[in-house]
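Weekly sync notes, structure subgroup
Attendees: PM, AL, DS (notes)

Item 1: joint prediction request from the bench team. They want all two components modeled as one assembly rather than separately. Inputs as received:
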Amino acid sequence: MIGLTGFGGYIPRLRLSRKSIADTNGWIQPGLKGLGKGERSICNWDEDSVTMAVEAARDCLHDRDNAEIRAIYLGSTTLPFLDRQNSGIVAAALNMDESLSTVDITSSQKAGTTALSTALDSADSSDGKEILVLASDARHTRAAAQQEMIFGDGAAAFTVGSKGVIAESLARHSFATDFVDHYRGENRSYDYNWEERWIRDEGYLKIMPQAIDKALAKAGIDAASVDTLIAPSTLKRVPEKIAQMTGINADALADALDGRVGATGCAHPLVMLSHVLESAKPGQIIVVASFGQGCDVLIFKVTNAIADRQPQTGISGYIARRQEETNYNKYMAFNDLVEQEKGMRAELDNQTAMTQLYRRRDMLLGLVGGECDVCGTRQFPRSRVCVNPNCNATNTQKPCNFSDTPAKIMTWSADHLTYCPDPPLHYGMIQFEGGGRFLANFTDADVGHVGTGQDVKMMFRVKDFDNQRGFRRYFWKAAPIRTSEESKNG
Amino acid sequence: MASGIKDKVAILGMGCSKFGERWESDPEDLMVEAFDECIADAGIDMKDIQAAWLATAIEEIHVGKGGIPLAFALRLPYIPVTRVENFCASGSEALRGAVYAVASGACDIALALGVEKLKDTGYGGLPQRSRGALNSMWWANYSAPGSFAQLASAYRAKHGVDAAELKRAMAHISVKSHANGSKNPKAHLQNKITEAQVLNAPMIAEPLGIFDCCGVSDGAACAIVTTPEIAKSLGKKDLITVKAIQLSVSNGIEAGHNTWDGSHFMTARIASKRAYEEAGIRDPRKEIGLAEVHDCFSITELVTMEDLYLSPEGGAVKDVLNGFYDADGGLPCQIDGGLKCFGHPIGSSGLRMMYELYLQMQGRAGDRQVENPKIGLTHNLGGAPHQNVCSVAIIGQQGA
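Output from the run, pasted for the record:
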């Protein structure tokens, strides 16, 4: 049996209220007001498709051994690097053994399902190892574009293999045609979109039902017995119409998360699938279909093992980890939609020495420090001489990963002087359970809700942008965990 | 222990430029201004100087690297000139070099000069500095106020001090330094301020407001040192001698080992103990008559009083609020206005502190003269609380 053996996901914490978009841009696009309900997820200034993919993967792999993974397939249309393998950054952040295959799958809104389908095609391996499939998107739009309202940012993660299958792959069908509903050419920041009515009638409603029919036929499944249909569309009423045309029950349509997250690009069918699996019951039939120059359809049957394999936080958990943002100007600034005065301190040259980055890649991308063999002291970074003043032994440290170690804030400040796209910049000394500490930048921190002794979770984020050279460097930041009491109060 | 340098070296002369936003002045102008006062005070010829140390911290702007800028500015006669940089303690490092050279007998007369031209950056606050290829990839992005502000959260957690009370003690420190600075014609900031102004000032890095931060200034300061015997042979009386210069540099414990609590400076405690031992001081709270400490931020001055064993641990808030460190208190601190008001041209600050003690001990401090100080201490710190260099120096009247 081949199928999904684990799942997880990630939704950024910031949620932009759609009303704030409509209030700002309604004067020029009155049509936006009709869409101005609910909220959409937005990346913090230091998040991108790679950082979201890392968090989704961690959510999926939280109780797993990385040694089980032999490949990473990353589907995205918004990868930060055109030529530097993005899934390779993810692998390093996850501290994967470097004997693995990494693949970026891109250039279509079905990149996510294609990554999953391709992984399932090659899942049978003699060594029993698995493939980590990630889909992540943070699509950029112009200010006042309708898509700005509809889109959201997010990522999903799955492991694919043959042991401990939680959702068996019953059938897969792919259809490819050069139907250009939108495109983004070389050196362009934004999509160019064709007319919606044509996309709906000639695109979604002709391409998807046929592909779903063929997949169902391959699986030998009757449409009426489908429990869940995941067939997201950015166009209204299209999923309902597809259900009707394929004979799948209307109530089988999965929650598209449009009121809380938005359409997360090529990740969306998989974000929805991850969300569905959180509450799936053994025996349920799930149909996943994507749309983008054709259609991928995947049919799964949930197994009894589903009860034993849950993500750490899950899409639901990340939807609940939420901070409302009503300041549309901030969203514009984060996404370079407005030329903003950043001050001279923003001119600091952040050139990265690739030689240095490579030598210390486990430390800088994987947050690997050291643990002294002699005295047991954990420390970051790993150094030649032990930091413990009562030890100071030389060349005794074995690698010690801090990314999943719980930590607390020892000291902190909120700095209005240092350049930060979202001031004040919070940072402080964080201390890891079991030893080790360093002065860390904080992320997802709220003014007035940071304090000594507070728990933090390490998250993989963009540290600095080198706009002069088109590079961005990543490192780990501490995200203060707000108590549930505080979260309720907003 | 080594015999140390107590009374082996005397200060022959000192000079200090006006500190401030010296828009009209190049670093060369500042160096010459401080040196002219110093050489006149020393009563020697420039060509009598046998070795020199130049302190500048931020060579990315202003003078550039190496010893050449000082040799050029003063037209020194092809003598050894060494540029030293140890963050904000650079000025004290220049003096340590010159003092050690004389104490060792390697030369008879040596010069230490610190200069910094900070106001050529185009923005307020300290200039941003390069950190090194690896550090820049993982060190938190932080500023000086943000890193020193960390002390406040840790100090409060350790001593159970109420946020408002700590902020009030910090405000008292700044109000005191402005009152002192108002009497110092060379100070960058000569205005008096009120506690309310400090408490209501815009936040820079929580809980440090604008008045909790020192001035960012241009300036230069220098010292010429020699042996007591040579000083006497040149006709000097009532010599001011060096009693101790100690330096302690973090090795990573604070930043990387969970034993440090974040509320104090390990280096200051180590350097001050060594300095007291070198100078033969047993009860610093009683024996030190004047202190010039590195008050880059009000919270730094507060915790430093404990690190120098002048206030008991946890007792600095009370001492500060009781006025113990005020001009008319038991141990006047920052009588010249400190970094807060005299200003902080980085490489100059350690020598500027020494300049004030030197004037005070000679009774030349004008309106801010305190009564007959015999022993004074400078504390000059560079870096951030979790990784720093700390110099503690003690000078005094010969025989004291």
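Discussion: Chain A touches chain B through 51 residues (CB under 8 Å).
Action: AL to compare against the crosslinking data before next sync.
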